[in-house]
């Protein structure tokens, strides 16, 4: 889309400053395109020059030059740890300007729409799991002073995401009274579940690892939107990918991919855990992660009146219900949640 004149002038000036610092070869701007943003408040622009293209991100300005955005810190760490992330060519914290590698418009989700076979789907996801594992394998002891290693998916954070969904999905989207005994009982069980998940072994996790946050460029998968990375169970990422609310993965492929991650990576993280124990954690993580996603979809609609994500709520809810149905210890909570949802 065409940017406003003021936006275009700002982006041009910032890019010309990059050229003046000799960080790039001298080039002529031919066009500037405003890109559709993600679910954040950041703004993105594509600059076309006579020889190539770049992406400009305009984030919140930072007054303190030492207060560098976590995105930039994590980009350096992940790049150094051989995680494929976008290259950064320049930055200006005072204006929130970040000049990035242009990864194009092909997301994992868009690309996988063109697959021809189940085997091809499996290969796409296997490569995504291998890339994800490079994040989980980061030796965080080397970064013990960084903020992202001090943050974690502890009970407070995990349950906070459940409270988020209570507010935006149950109360605001469905218009329910969330002070009832039924909701209280549901949330007591969710708290216990979050407590259990918080005590699992922790690695560095992306926090939002799904098909819209992987770009495909020249056949290579590239991780984006990693600025909220923190310590947590690796299953948070695995569930985010395989139980993605945007794409229904073939069940046979999903089963093979789960076993692949367990055998190739998880055994090294938690060798004492059996596959059956792993799968129970996986299912509990699915309930937590997908219910949080429902809250996010409802929030985006409530906050911005953005309808793009509303269509995923029904599918996501049925996923949560199906996992609860497979566990007898969630029978009461499943009935409560289903009654609340189907009554609307």
Topology:
Layout: H1 5-20, E1 29-35, E2 43-49, E3 53-58, H2 70-80, E4 88-92, E5 97-101, H3 108-112, H4 118-136, H5 147-150, H6 155-173, H7 181-198, E6 203-205, E7 214-217, E8 220-223, E9 230-232, H8 235-242, H9 251-269, H10 275-304, H11 313-325, H12 331-342
Antiparallel strand pairs: 1-2, 2-3, 3-5, 4-5, 6-9, 7-8
Helix pairs in contact: 4-8, 4-9, 6-7, 6-10, 7-10, 7-12, 8-10, 10-11
Can you walk me through this structure?
51% of the residues lie in helices and 13% in strands. The chain has helices spanning 5-20, 70-80, 108-112, 118-136, 147-150, 155-173, 181-198, 235-242, 251-269, 275-304, 313-325, 331-342, and strands at 29-35, 43-49, 53-58, 88-92, 97-101, 203-205, 214-217, 220-223, 230-232. The protein is an alpha+beta fold. The strands form three sheets. A five-stranded antiparallel beta sheet has the order 1-2-3-5-4, covered by helices on one side. It is globular and about 65 Å long. Helix 4 (118-136) runs parallel beside helix 9 (251-269) and helix 7 packs across helix 10. It folds into two domains: 5-101, Phosphorylase Kinase, domain 1 (2-Layer Sandwich), CATH 3.30.200; 108-342, Alpha-Beta Complex (Aminoglycoside 3'-phosphotransferase, Chain: A, domain 2), CATH 3.90.1200. It contains twelve helices and nine strands.
């Amino acid at each position: 889309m065409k940017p406003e004149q003021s936006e275009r002038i700002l982006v041009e000036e910032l890019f010309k400053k990059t050229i003046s610092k000799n960080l790039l070869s001298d080039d002529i701007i031919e066009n500037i395109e405003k890109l559709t943003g993600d679910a954040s408040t950041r703004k993105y622009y594509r600059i076309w020059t006579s020889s190539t293209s770049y992406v400009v991100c305009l984030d919140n300005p930072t007054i303190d030059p030492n207060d560098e955005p976590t995105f930039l810190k994590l980009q350096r760490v992940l790049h150094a740890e051989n995680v494929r992330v976008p290259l950064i060519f320049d930055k200006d914290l005072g204006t929130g300007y970040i000049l990035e590698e242009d990864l194009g418009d092909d997301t994992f989700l868009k690309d996988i729409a063109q697959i021809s076979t189940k085997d091809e789907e499996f290969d796409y996801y296997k490569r995504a799991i291998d890339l994800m594992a490079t994040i989980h394998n980061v030796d965080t002891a080397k970064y013990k002073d960084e903020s992202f290693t001090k943050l974690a998916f502890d009970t407070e954070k995990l349950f906070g995401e459940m409270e988020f969904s209570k507010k935006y999905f149950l109360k605001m989207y469905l218009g329910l009274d969330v002070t009832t005994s039924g909701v209280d009982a549901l949330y007591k069980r969710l708290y216990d579940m979050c407590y259990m998940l918080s005590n699992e072994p922790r690695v560095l996790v992306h926090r939002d690892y799904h098909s819209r946050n992987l770009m495909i460029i020249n056949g290579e998968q590239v991780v984006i939107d990693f600025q909220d990375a923190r310590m947590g169970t690796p299953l948070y990422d695995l569930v985010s990918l395989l139980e993605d609310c945007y794409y229904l993965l073939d069940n046979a492929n999903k089963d093979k991919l789960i076993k692949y991650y367990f055998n190739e990576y998880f055994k090294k993280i938690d060798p004492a855990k059996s596959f059956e124990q792993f799968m129970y954690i996986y299912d509990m993580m699915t309930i937590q992660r997908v219910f949080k996603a429902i809250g996010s979809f409802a929030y985006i609609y409530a906050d911005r009146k953005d309808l793009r994500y509303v269509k995923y709520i029904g599918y996501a809810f049925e996923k949560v219900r199906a996992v609860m149905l497979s566990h007898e210890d969630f029978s009461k909570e499943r009935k409560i949640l289903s009654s609340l949802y189907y009554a609307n």
